[in-house]
Amino acid sequence: MAEIRPFRGVYYNKEIVGDISGVICPPYDIISPQMDEELHNRNAYNFIRIEYNRLQTDDSDANNRYTRSAANFRQWLEQKVLLTDEMPAIYVHDQFFHLDGDEYKRRSLIVRVRLEDWDKNIVRPHEKTFKGPKKDRISLLWALNSNTSSVMSMYEDKDLAISSFLKRMDTGKTLIATEELDGERHNVWTITEPQAVKEFCDYFTDKPLYIADGHHRYESALTYKKERSSCDNNADPDAAYNFVMMTLLDMDDPNLIIFPTHRLLSGLEPGIIGNLEAGLKQYFDIEELSLESPDLWQQVDRITADGTNIKLTVVGLKTGMVSILALKDINAAVAMMPAERSDVYKKMDVSIVDHVILEKILGMQSDDEKRIAYTHNRAEAVKRVLAGECQLAIITNMVKGQTIKDIADVKDRMPRKSTYFYPKLPSGLIVNHLV
Known about the structure:
Blueprint: E1 4-5, E2 10-12, H1 14-17, H2 33-42, H3 48-51, H4 65-78, E3 82-84, E4 90-99, E5 102-114, E6 123-124, H5 131-144, E7 146-147, E8 151-155, H6 161-169, E9 173-177, E10 184-191, H7 194-202, E11 209-213, H8 215-231, E12 243-250, E13 257-260, E14 262-265, H9 270-281, E15 284-290, H10 296-304, E16 311-315, E17 321-327, H11 330-334, H12 343-346, H13 349-361, E18 372-375, H14 378-386, E19 392-395, H15 401-409, E20 419-422, E21 432-433
Parallel strand pairs: 6-11, 8-12
Antiparallel strand pairs: 1-5, 2-3, 4-5, 4-10, 5-12, 7-21, 8-11, 9-10, 13-20, 14-18, 14-19, 15-17, 16-17, 16-19
């Protein structure tokens, strides 16, 4: 199914920039204004100057964030700040990170993947996309003719063939080894031997790929491919613009961390809050636990993970208490959802939150961004309620890679703001120059 290829990656020259951790940056869509300032000050060659160049008040068609990114890219290639690999390679990326005091290693593979329309069901999405981010990425593609950040995708390896292959190959040439910065470090090594590369690519001939993070990047690359081919009278099916850089992860990797996205509600009228408990009791059994309990979150995790029915956690319903909601009747909840939605969608706890609590009980739109904020951190959600920054926090549960696969397999999409893959892939570690 999926067509995988090696490529000649572009990467930083350590002899010029120093430790690579100081020049890579997060993907564009999570760079805050504060982070933007920190990254610009961190190193004169930080990749933010390519990935997400700053807007200026005098921007024009001839001089704008995209033309400035392109100028930096060309200059850094000419000055050997950025090097192009001598041979096409499969790049094996080991990303080390910390969570709750423990260190994890997530292994992934950076490759080129042939771009396919969604209807071919070879590359499978699980969430909707929006016009704004796609327009930005398409403009950057035209300016640089490069994928600056990778599409994160998952694959199945039930027979452990790919895992076994990587263990055999774990003697490859180390290309990048960073020091730790911001709690992360990275090692990248390459597989270049032609027979080994062919063996690896062949593993995917009968496998679909599931986009985990980077739907906008993929759709932008797909649009770029179509625009480029329409300008090319002798379009070559193997031209580089027919491919996109992807980072592939085993969906059963225990170090593949997918955070849920909790809902923080504010701006609700006092009467609505006052009637909320009665409304919830129509559809949920409610168990209360004290916020002062020393093992509170161990209790919450044990109760919500028992698997008997869908359970959600709410902070702010009662002062000083955490409320655990256990859904009484899944069929009653399903009846409130669009009929065309899949069974997988209808049984997700985020769907229950959006359609039953937000829309049915509170009378809100589930995409009301004036009254709904989001966080992936449970402790932060609780803190913001206690500080009065929001009225309610609805804590959702971890999403598994299998759930993403299941919803993508039936060609459905998850509710917005359902998943957050942690940690994000860095931008600038490997660049796919489409030449």
